[in-house]
Design goal:
By secondary structure, the protein is an alpha/beta fold. It has helices at residues 7-19, 35-47, 75-84, 95-98, 117-120, 124-139, 151-163, 193-214, 220-231, and strands at 2-4, 24-29, 50-55, 89-91, 143-147, 169-173, 237-245, 259-268, 271-280. α8 (193-214) packs antiparallel against α9 (220-231). The chain binds pantoate (PAF).
Length: 282
């Protein structure tokens, strides 16, 4: 595995690989890898000839007071995992490389970033869209793979690639879960023992809505209420939002006719966790 820290080197490498006719798969991450990331790598290996992963904890997508400083980092462990997952190139730029002195260009995706996390984390998706645009320009992938846990992020990046005519196929992969259903996330490492036990009810809540949906309920009010009742049992969980949205626009819906996304964000102590489930007519 080749480790590249500089933009010009990464560009040269991808130009050479493209010139040889290789299809490049790219998995952008912020590191502290888990099984969810590994499923993205597996998909990347399946669809492309060469696998590039980036690890960059992107300051632009964290607001003041969020967890940028304490975001978990373990580059040595991540490097070993990448090696054992047959990553060909690990791109590991530092913040000065991505945002040098004088940096002043940002990318804003409008409609789909307004609701959900866009409301509770102003500026977050601007930071994501900016860094992903830069990474796509540097790595020039044919395929880019993202997890569906960050569903709104996935929709935002698909929109970005479409609107800016980027020649990249943005692929979403299903959420990978722990045994009790908790969606895998680097932030799960913040949870204390009791918090971790409570976190299992996030999945139970969204599953409850799905059960009621599968029994024929279509009203958003009722479906959301079923989920809220489950999370609200735990005094450690503070719901931030529980919403049913259109899968393409991320706008709220009153009823689910064919399909919708039930999205949830909660706080458990100082940790903010998100999850979602697709409600789709069989
Ligand atoms: O999902 C993430 O890890 C990040 O938001 C991403 C897409 C790598 C951009 O920093």
């Amino acid at each position: 595995m080749k480790v590249i820290e500089y933009i010009h080197e990464m560009k040269e490498a991808s130009q050479a690989l493209r010139a040889e006719g290789n299809k490049i798969s790219f998995v952008p991450t912020m590191g502290y890898l888990h099984q969810g990331h590994l499923s993205l790598l597996k998909k990347g290996r399946d669809v492309g000839d060469l696998l590039v992963m980036s690890i960059f904890v992107n300051p632009a997508q964290f607001a003041k007071g969020e967890d940028f400083e304490r975001y978990p980092r373990d580059f040595e462990r991540d490097k070993k995992m990448c090696e054992s997952e047959s990553v060909d190139i690990l791109f590991l730029p530092n913040a000065r490389e991505i945002y040098p002195d004088g940096y002043q260009t940002y990318v804003e995706v409008e409609g789909v970033t307004k609701n959900l996390c866009g409301t509770s984390r102003p500026g977050h998706f601007r930071g994501v869209a900016t860094v992903v645009t830069k990474l796509f320009n540097i790595v020039r992938p044919h395929y880019a793979i993202f997890g569906e846990k960050d569903f709104q992020q996935l929709v935002t990046i698909k929109r970005l690639a479409l609107d800016l005519d980027m020649d990249v196929d943005v692929i979403g992969m299903p959420i990978v879960r722990e045994a009790d259903g908790l969606a895998m996330s680097s932030r799960n490492s913040y949870l204390g023992q009791e918090e971790r036990a409570a976190a299992g009810s996030i999945y139970r809540a969204i599953q409850r809505s799905k059960e009621v949906f599968d029994e024929g309920e279509r009203s958003a009010g009722i479906l959301l209420n079923e989920a809220r009742k489950v999370v609200e049992i735990s005094p450690l969980i503070e719901p931030e939002y529980v919403k049913l949205v259109n899968m393409g626009t991320m706008e709220e819906v009153d009823r689910v006719e064919n399909e919708a996304l039930l999205a949830i964000a909660v706080r458990i102590g100082k940790t903010r966790l998100i999850d979602n489930i697709i409600l789709r007519k069989a």
